[in-house]
Design a protein that fits this description.
Layout: E1 2-4, E2 9-16, E3 19-26, E4 35-36, H1 45-54, E5 59-63, H2 72-85, E6 88-93, H3 100-104
Parallel strand pairs: 4-5, 5-6
Antiparallel strand pairs: 1-2, 2-3
Helix pairs in contact: 1-2
């Protein structure tokens, strides 16, 4: 019998001459699952990342909403939160939502 677990491990149960045996085998590719700060929109980005960390997520995307979030106090606060909770930032989404309709749907009439 084979049972797959959430961490890409396969548990194999076999019954042999000397009794039952359980072995673990790695299968597939490890996958990281993270949380985007946009999940908590319209909350402030630093509050969103704090929530991600508080919930225990170790992988995150930061979804910037304005140029002021890319420098100064806000960026320092994001780095502090990231370091405090041990969050790995694997993706950054720029603040293009204001003009994405023009980039993606420009051929619509």
């Amino acid at each position: 019998m084979i049972i797959f677990s959430a961490n890409n491990r396969k548990k194999v149960f076999t019954v042999g001459r000397y009794g039952a045996k359980i072995t673990m085998e790695k299968v597939g590719v490890d996958m990281e699952i993270g949380v985007s700060s946009s999940c908590f929109y319209p909350e402030l980005i630093e509050k969103s990342l704090e929530t991600v960390g508080h919930l225990g997520a170790k992988t995150a995307e930061i979804f910037f909403n304005s140029p002021c979030e890319l420098e100064g106090k806000i960026l320092k606060e994001l780095c502090r939160i990231k370091d405090y909770y041990g969050i790995q930032i694997r993706s950054v989404h720029p603040f293009t939502s204001g003009y994405e309709p023009y980039l993606i749907f420009s051929n619509y009439r």
